[in-house]
Structures are given as structure tokens and as C-alpha cells.
Write a structure and sequence with these properties.
Elements (H helix, E strand, L loop, with lengths): L4 E6 L3 H12 L1 H8 L3 E7 L15 E2 L14 E4 L6 H12 L3 E4 L2 H18 L3 E2 L10 H8 L5 E7 L2 H13 L3 H10 L7 H5 L2 H15 L9 E2 L7 H10 L1 E12 L2 E12 L11 E8 L3 E8 L3 H16 L26 E2 L1 E7 L5 H11 L4 E6 L11 E7 L2 E2 H12 L2 H4 L3 E5 L6
Parallel strand pairs: 1-2, 1-4, 2-3, 4-5, 5-6, 8-10, 10-18
Antiparallel strand pairs: 7-9, 7-11, 9-10, 11-12, 13-17, 14-16, 14-18, 15-16
Helix pairs in contact: 1-11, 3-4, 4-9, 6-7, 12-13
Bound molecules: L-homoserine.
């Protein structure tokens, strides 16, 4: 049997602890599956004395994780520190430059610097594996890299943030406000350190940018993702959507469009009865369409100790088996630059909610502004509640027929002239066929 694979784990939070546990508890199986032992030789974290419920007594402690990047006895650095820059980036860059394999769960790092890091990995002939960075325990990176390699991917759509899905599910089940349910999610430990990364859609956008790169053979470009969070969604929006036969989900969607690739993260009305509408709570799901395979939906836990550590271990097993593949499926020299598709001609139907002044003619003004922009209305619902406490306005909800994004933009400009009657509208897309 070959010599053991020596591992250094940087970061002993929830995921790091999970990795250490699996290495100990599944030792014999992992050795058999990899053809060699996996040996934890060093760990690093902020607090040395904290009781984490794991036995690391025989393992070297590094006060500075960066020491692992040049330690002679480490073959693989597992980076679980997080953050797109700072120590995590420095550690990964140096470890790769020094010819060490890297496994990371850091979506922000891969979304921001993935291609540059992949170049270093390629030059040194080492692995840069990041299965845990997207959708936790769902093996979506391997699915795209291996199982679906024969396909031209036409679209990727996913529920990529468990915190948002939990919040939207709870708001629907209990009718409670966004703020109240967010506080629960934080207490349960699902949310990122900065919850605006979750609810503002940034976390999902990091993950989507990675998926779009793998699906469409382009450089990862977080900056090309259009991002909108769930902060403005109210319990009554969820109720209106339900009456129309939809669930509201934060979706990440990537598909080819005119001149490039469209990458968007935003709340979306997803028709009930479709796979993504059925995903509830902290679960994640990714729907992929391939030209040969058709639609494929993978659902599972997107965060937490077990699922994320499970993904980290799958990357370690690959490395122990000697499998080193280009981090973005094809060598970086084959990746196309990321170009945003032109969006004006994109067609979608929309849910629009105004908090409209409760007086004669207000709806007439709103519908006139929509008509002037060629936006055709399918349904209108006016509700007598909830009345906005400060303005006294009442919600009026429109579902539009399919309309071009450019027309919708025009409509919003027209409407901004009527803000005194219409307030600032909430505009949510209805899922198109590639995004459900
Ligand atoms: N905050 C993330 C989520 C955790 O809620 O999905 C995993 O990236």
C-alpha cells in the first residue's frame, strides 16, 4: 500500500470538526477505498483550548494556519477558514505554489479567485477541489465534472442558500415576518457570519458563479451575476403567490443567452408541482438540463457538519486515489471569458406588488403606466390588508403576461413617476421553463 496521505485541516468550526470525526470514524473504509491511509497530521484554529468533542491529542497544533502551506509533512491542506481574501487566500495560494493539494469549502474564495488559483494548481500538477463550496452535501461539482461530461448544459437553476429557503418556508408556514424568522435562522446556526450574505443573495451568487463556470466552460465571474435578495418579500407576498399557485424561492439561474451567459440570483415565483417548488426548509437543490440527459434534479442538505464534511471527504478520497483533474473541468486555457448575455429581450412573466394609495384612480394610473410600456396584465388582486402602517396604502398585486425584460424596465421608469400612488413596486419574476 502507498504511503499515507498527510492532511492539515485549517479551521475547526462545524465543518472542520466534522472532517476530523469522519477521518477517525471511517478510517478503515477510507483506507480501503483510497488504497492508502489518510492521516491527520496538523490542525489550526483560533482557539486552542476549546473543547470540540474530538480527539486531536496526537495531532500538531499550528497557531498560524499558513504554516501548513510550507510544512514538509503535509500533502493536502483543507482550508475551512472562509472569506475570499485574507488568511484563507494566502494559505491556499501558497500551498498550491508549494505543490500541495488543496481542498476547500470556501465559495467566496473560488467565486472571486478560482481561476487564478486553478492556474497555480495546474502549473504545479496538484488538485484544487471544492465540492463542499456549492450546495454542501450535494455532489454537484462531481455531477457536472464527471457524470454529465458528455452533455452540453443548457441551464442550471438552484436553491443554493439554505438560510433563505428556511426563511421563506417558515414565513409561508407561520405567516411570521422576514425579520422574526431570520432571527430564528441565526439562532439555529444556518446563517453566514454576516447574514446579509445569505438574505442579500451574495452567498447564492458565489455558488451560482461557480456552477455557471463549470456548466458553460467560462471563467468564474461573480461580478457578472445579477443579485437580488429576499429582504423585501413579505408574508403577504408569499400568501398572494400561493393563491396564484406558486411558491417564492430564492433561485440562482444560469443559462446561455444572446451574446453570453445570463447569471441571476433573485426571488422567483416557482409553480407548485415542479421539483424546486417542493424543496423546503434548509434544503438545497439544483436542477440541470443537459442536451443528452434531459432534466436532472439533485436535492439535499446544503450546510451543516455532516453534509459539508461529507463533501470535503469525497475530495480527499479523490486525491488519495491519485485523481487530479482541472479544477474547472477543462484546463484554464480552454475557459472562455465570462460575458454577460444581453437581457433586454429575455422573456418572463412577473409578479408585481404595489402598495397603492387607497383612492379613486390609483389602479388606473398604474395600469396605464404598464400599458404604455407594452406590459400586459394577466391578473390583478387588490387586498384590503395588510394596510401599510406609515402610508395607509394597500397592496395591489399584478401578474403580467410574458413580457420582455426591456419592457419591464421601461414600465418601472414610467411607474417611478407615480411613486406617490404606487410606492416602490416589488417585482418578482415567474420561473421560466429552464428554471424550475
Ligand atoms: N449560509 C449558507 C446557507 C451555508 O445558508 O446555505 C452554506 O454555504
Amino acid at each position: 500500500m502507498s504511503k499515507p496521505l498527510s492532511i492539515g485541516v485549517a479551521g475547526l468550526g462545524t465543518v472542520g470538526v466534522g472532517v476530523v470525526k469522519i477521518l477517525a470514524e471511517r478510517k478503515d473504509f477510507l483506507t480501503a477505498a483510497s488504497g492508502r491511509a489518510m492521516k491527520l497530521v496538523a490542525v489550526s484554529a483560533r482557539n486552542k483550548t476549546k473543547d470540540r468533542g474530538i480527539d486531536i491529542s496526537g495531532v500538531r497544533w499550528e497557531d498560524d494556519a499558513r504554516a501548513m502551506s510550507s510544512a514538509d509533512d503535509i500533502d493536502v491542506v483543507v482550508e475551512l477558514i472562509g472569506g475570499s481574501d485574507g488568511i484563507a487566500r494566502e494559505l491556499v495560494e501558497t500551498a498550491l505554489s508549494n505543490g500541495k493539494h488543496v481542498v476547500t469549502a470556501n465559495k467566496a474564495l473560488i467565486a472571486r479567485h478560482g481561476v487564478a488559483l486553478a492556474r497555480v494548481a495546474e502549473q504545479r500538477g496538484v488538485a484544487l477541489n471544492y465540492e463542499a463550496a456549492v450546495a454542501g452535501g450535494i455532489p454537484i461539482i462531481k455531477a457536472l465534472r464527471e457524470g454529465l461530461a458528455a452533455n452540453e448544459i443548457t441551464s442550471v437553476a438552484g436553491i443554493l442558500n439554505g438560510t433563505c429557503n428556511y426563511i421563506l418556508t417558515e414565513m409561508e408556514a407561520t405567516g411570521r415576518s422576514f425579520e422574526a424568522v431570520l432571527a430564528d435562522a441565526q439562532a439555529l446556526g444556518y446563517a453566514e457570519a454576516d447574514p446579509s450574505f445569505d438574505v442579500g443573495g451574495i452567498d447564492a451568487a458565489h455558488k451560482l458563479a461557480i456552477l455557471a463556470s463549470l456548466a458553460f466552460g467560462q471563467e468564474v465571474s461573480f461580478d457578472n451575476v445579477e443579485v437580488e435578495g429576499i429582504e423585501r418579500i413579505t408574508a403577504s407576498d408569499i400568501e398572494f403567490a400561493k393563491d396564484f399557485g406558486y411558491k417564492i424561492k430564492l433561485l440562482g439561474v444560469a443559462m446561455r443567452g444572446p451574446g453570453g451567459v445570463e447569471q441571476r440570483v433573485h426571488p422567483t415565483l416557482v409553480p407548485e408541482g415542479t421539483p424546486l417548488a417542493a424543496v423546503s426548509g434548509v434544503f438545497n437543490a439544483v436542477s440541470i438540463e443537459g442536451d443528452r440527459v434531459g432534466q436532472l434534479v439533485l436535492e439535499g442538505r446544503g450546510a451543516g457538519e455532516g453534509p459539508t464534511a461529507s463533501a470535503v471527504l469525497s475530495d480527499l478520497v479523490d486525491i488519495a486515489r491519485g485523481l487530479v483533474v482541472p479544477p474547472f473541468i477543462v484546463p484554464t486555457s480552454h475557459l472562455k471569458p465570462s460575458v454577460k448575455a444581453k437581457s433586454d429581450a429575455n422573456k418572463s412573466a412577473y409578479y408585481i406588488r404595489f402598495n397603492a394609495a387607497d383612492r379613486a384612480g390609483s389602479i388606473a394610473e398604474i395600469t396605464r403606466a404598464l400599458a404604455d410600456a407594452q406590459v400586459s396584465i394577466e391578473r390583478i388582486v387588490q387586498s384590503s390588508e395588510p394596510r401599510d402602517a406609515s402610508t395607509g396604502r394597500l397592496p395591489v398585486v399584478f401578474l403580467t403576461h410574458e413580457t420582455e425584460e426591456g419592457s419591464m424596465r421601461k414600465a418601472l421608469i414610467h411607474l417611478s413617476k407615480h411613486e406617490d400612488v404606487a410606492g416602490k413596486p416589488l417585482v418578482v419574476r415567474l420561473a421560466t421553463s429552464g428554471s424550475r
